[in-house]
Amino acid sequence: MTSLATLATAHLKGPHVDFAGLSPLIALLGGATIVLLVGLIRARWVRAHVVPALSLVVLGATAGLTIWQWNAQKSVVSGALRIDDLSLVLNLILVTGGALSVLLAWRSLAAREAAHGEFHALLLASIAGMSLLAAAQNTVALFVGLELLSIPLYVLCASELRREQSLESGLKYLIVGAVGSATLLYGLAMIYGATGATDFDVIAHALSGGSLASDPLTLTGIALCVVGLCFKASVAPFHQWTPDVYEGAPTPVTAFMAVATKVAAFGVFLRFFDVALIGAQSSWGPAIAVLATITILVGNVGALGQSSLKRMLAYSSVAQAGYMLAGVAVATQLGVRATVFYLAVYVFMNMASFAVIVARERETGLGDSIQAVAGLGRERPLLAWPMTISMLALAGIPATAGFTGKFYLIDAAVSGGYTWLGVAIVIGSMISLGYYLPVIAAIWMRKAPSEQPGVGQLPSPTGAPLGGGEGLPVLAGGSPELDEPSNGVQPEVVLVAAVAGVATLFFGIVPQPLFNLVHHAGSALGGLFF
Amino acid sequence: MPPLSIMLWLPLACALLGAALSMLGRQAGVVEHPEMPAGETSVVGAPWSRLSTSGGFALLGSLGALGLAIGYIADYSPSSNGLTHVTDLVWISELGIHYKLGVDGLNVFMIGLATLLFAAAVIAANLREWDRPRLFYFNFMLAESAVLGALLAQDLALFVAFFDLMLIPFYFLIGVWGAEPGRVKATIKLVIYTLVGSLLMLAAAVATGVLAAQQGGGHITFVLSSLQQLPLSRGSQEWIFLFFAAAFLVKMPAFPLHGWMPDGYKAMPIEVLMVFSGVLSKVGAYGFLRIVLPLYPQAAAHFQTLMLLIALASIIYGSVVAFTQTDARLIAGYSSVAQLGFITLGIFSLNPQGAQGALLQMVNHGLVVAALLFIVGLLAQRAGGSEDIRDMGGIAFRAPVLATIFLVVALATLAMPGSSNFVGEFLILLGVFKTNLAIAVIAFSGVVLASVYALRLLIRAMHNRVGSKVDSRELSFRDGVVLVPLLAVIVFMALYPQLALHRSEGSVKTAVAAAHGALEPSSAKLAGGLESGAAPLSTAGASSEGAAP
Q1: What distance in Å separates the CA atoms of residue B392 and residue B18, rounded to the nearest whole number?
Q2: What is the residue extent of each domain of chain A?
Q3: What gap in Å lies between CA B25 and CA B31, rounded to an integer?
Q4: CB distance from B268 to chain A under 8 Å?
Q5: How far is CA B296 from each of CA B153, B201, B243, B482, rounded to the nearest angstrom?
């Protein structure tokens, strides 16, 4: 009997699938399908409110399943994915960012125009791609994850169908993203050609033994991979798309893109470079360190003098990518921890700002101009404080999590022998004061635009809100689905701002919980360092 | 005595409580205070009749902190060498950052100065109506907590965090409540200048911790006493020293790095300026004694001449410019540049007398400049709102008490023998004489110049012909509440400077010892011709003179 059973299994031998390990991913993709189907229900309130609520439930379930898998150390799907503390921590960060984005998009024009079901299904699919990317353990999974992340994002960027900039942003992102993906794929192919493997640990093994690490084919492959990933993480000089796309995309999507894409991209950086290519660290380490320095300078200088907050935050995100790249370049456990720590902090810092921008876009009709936050301190302290905390944190002021994050990164850079990179981070922070501080000045030290003669709010003839408040006269006619006034208080947006702001402050003063979390993530890659 | 944390956080806690209560009160419909045009100075009414909720709580917090600080001064015994009242908790274990506070001879009088000036400034602030009082007092008290944190911190990273943090409330205080032409510009300039220095310091601090850990082979730590056990290599010390010096010199400000000062001083409300000029500038000087000399002694010895020259330039430049200014505030501002030059001079004489004089002078100058600035505010009220000394004159006419107080403060500013400032400057110059004769001789001219600008300010404002817009009034009781305690402490320090000198002696000696020690071998080595090059040679000149009896 037993021999028969053995025979049967031998015949039907498929890969062993560990459903428990895959459960967060399954929840996300299954949830995306359900959300899409629910979005077909005709009742308006179902589409407008049940769909986003359901998306939140899906994200909550994913978080729950992630925590259930805590301390797992396993490879699933024949070693294509690695479920360890790094991927789980990144999952949690991603889910947090995703949930905050869903809240921001709850009453947005983008979700209405693209139809709620589709919008949220795409968002969830993109998060699934990011989660896949963060766990990828071979080059094929890496590429699949990257595409699953990117393609929904291209669509999301263009989801405000009646606004030209949104469409332009989607198209631009598509073209640049495709170039990036192609470059990366080419690089992966070359690495496969040189090492004969797609699995990260096999590649690492091949590179560790002898001359392969300095082989021209490998080096070209690595260089192309660096370029491809730099496109995704908006690292200079491959960042040019960032300001345009960020500015054009609907703000909730921008928030999601800024936060979640970065997390996924750096997850890949950590896994691919600090695990698979660790043997060639001597060749890519200095290159990435130089790229980090360029990125810090370009991002910070570019952000100076921007009057659009979204463009400013786009350049600031370029600069922040540079800081985090420092943690990758050193290729130490400390570097991994510092990068993951900064990623977590980065989510909160940026979400607070974007939430305030979303709220002000809907309230003022001034778009994302810095004018829109002028006088906020007097008018809406609940929005002013999160924005202030976020700006101070991004600039790296003590008592905010941004300071601790930067401290950790500098610590990692100096310990890894890149003292000059630590100094570059500091110089970047100095330049950044030149654009973060004026925002705070606008919030607290200038009068609200309506109080200034000439720049008053554009009165709408019917007294109805201006096109839902999104954008300027382009939408003044209103969209056909403009059924609910989104003007005035938006509790969920204020909630996002407040939660993100408080978290930024809390982790600045009591960073220990976050450190404990990150400590696990760093140890996950422990065995693979030399 | 209660733990230091209570004193440290009391101001902030009171401010938050006051803000919360006043917000509740407003929701309950209680009118906090009658509507007054913002910024108008009130001169009528009983002293405390219009104390706002937030202002009252801020006052409570600052007076509480002052009381505790006096307790620590009384409690500190001159013989105790080393830290007392230590609080040591692990803040971030991965980074080896401790929440470590302690009091020793170096900071015991600094916390006294800081709490005294903050209390005086809060009283002064309560005499006025402020637009958005909750936000104002919150920022003011956050500043006090941050300054106290920087003074008490015994961990390098904690010091850096507090040092950076204390600037943020001032960004708001100047930007929101500053004087109109150019307040936003002035505040951004000030913050960028000072934060640039502070961020350099951040990199230097992290490098100190990491390099020390690599050298010692242990776990990374930022606790000052542990770092002192792990001296860095000379090369690392030198660049780290320069980064720290940049941060502290900007904050003081010293001569080439004072660009933010004129605009910043002009824009600040006078109550804010009192603490900024009186306390914040001293934190920079204190940083040299607390951090730089013990941790980077070789670099301090190496750059001694450079620092002495910067100090000298600050003295001469500050004094000369103070003499040419007509804005009373800027006279006080540039005189601070000169006075902080003296303090730097004393510290970098790298011997105990000079450093002790510097420490004494920090306290003296803080007291004097705060009183001086408050008087400038009073003078402006009597000269039709102008702070230009050309619009003043004859104010002493009907205000003998104010004139007397001003005279005492002016004489203290110019370090009249008998004042505590005289003792401080004397010790500083004594210290520098032992180090570098030429610099000491030139620095003496600064003493002379000080009497020129101080007396010029006094005579032009109080005497001479009565200015056209001048309305001479006696010091009001309410203003006296601010001024008299300051004056009392100035007089007390003049009568009994030994109080500070005695108690700080041991700690100052310890702080300077390493750097002083680093001077001797390097001069001996250089005299032997083992090293060459322009910079070391100049050090050799300086230190060989220092070695000569």
Answers
A1: 39
A2: 19-452+490-528
A3: 8
A4: no
A5: 18, 13, 12, 40
Question: Which residues on B lie below 8 Å from A411 (Cβ)?
Answer: 95, 206, 209-210, 220
Report the 10 Å Cβ neighbour count for B56.
18
Whether residue B206 lies within 8 A of chain A, CB to CB, comes out as: yes
Tokens of B327: 């804005």
Of B162, B188, B199, the CB nearest to A426: B199
- Check if the beta carbon of residue B119 is closer than 8 Å to that of residue B481: no
Chain B neighbors of A410, CB-CB under 8 A: 202-203, 206
Distances (CA, A) of A169 to A254, A305, A321, A330, B364: 10, 22, 21, 34, 62
Q: Which one of B26, B91, B94, B211 would you mutate to disrupt binding with A, by most A Cβ within 10 Å of its Cβ?
A: B94
Look at B171 and A408 and tell me if their CB atoms are within 8 Å: no
**pLDDT in 10s for each residue of chain B, 549 residues:** 788 899 999 999 999 998 888 888 777 654 444 444 444 344 444 445 567 788 888 999 999 999 999 999 888 887 777 788 888 888 888 888 999 999 988 888 999 999 999 999 999 998 888 888 888 999 999 999 999 999 999 999 999 999 989 888 998 898 888 887 788 888 888 888 888 888 889 889 999 988 888 887 778 888 888 888 888 888 888 999 999 999 999 988 888 888 888 888 888 899 999 999 999 889 989 999 999 998 999 899 999 999 999 999 999 999 999 988 888 889 999 999 999 999 999 999 988 889 999 999 999 999 999 999 999 988 888 888 888 888 888 887 788 888 889 999 999 988 888 888 888 999 999 999 888 888 888 888 888 888 888 888 888 888 877 777 777 788 888 888 888 999 999 999 888 888 888 888 888 888 888 888 887 654 444 443 333 333 333 333 333 333 333
CB A488 within 8 A of CB A381: no
What is d(CA B486, CA B479) in angstroms, rounded to the nearest whole number?
A: 11
Helical H segments across B414-476, by residue range: 420-435, 437-462
pLDDT tens profile B41-69: 444 444 455 677 888 889 999 999 999 99
- How far apart CA A419 and CA A81 sit, in angstroms, is 35
Distance CA A112, CA B452 (A): 74
Mutation site for B-interface testing, chosen from A293, A426, A435, A443 by largest number of B Cβ within 10 Å: A426
Asked if B93 lies within 8 A of A515 by C-beta distance, the reply is: yes
State ipTM.
0.85
What DSSP string runs through A380-413? -HHHHHHHHHHHHHHHT-TTSHHHHHHHHHHHHH
Report in angstroms the alpha-carbon separations of A236 from A285, A297, A320, A349: 16, 9, 11, 21
- Which residues partner with B88 through β-bridges? B100
B137-146 pLDDT, tens digit per residue, is 999 999 999 9
Nearest CB neighbour to A430, from listed B94, B168, B199: B199
Facing residue for B202 by CB, picked from A392, A426, A446? A426
Chain A residue numbers with beta carbons less than 8 Å from the beta carbon of B206 are 407, 410-411, 414, 422
Residue A411: which of B172, B200, B210 has the nearest Cβ?
B210
The nearest CA of chain B is from the CA of A94 a distance in Å of 24
Tell me the nearest-neighbour CA distance from A451 into chain B, angstroms. Answer: 17
Tell me if B88 sits within 8 A of B100, measured CB to CB: yes
Long-range CB contacts for residues A66-69, cutoff 8 Å, separation at least 24: A66/A24, A66/A91, A66/A92, A66/A95, A67/A92, A68/A20, A68/A23, A69/A20, A69/A21, A69/A23, A69/A24
Q: Which of A426, A356, A343, A411 is nearest to A384 (CA)?
A: A356
CB atoms within 10 A of CB A430: 19
For B422, residues 6+ apart whose C-beta sits below 8 A from its C-beta are B415, B416
Indicate the DSSP class of residue A460. P
Cβ atoms < 10 Å from Cβ of B548: 9
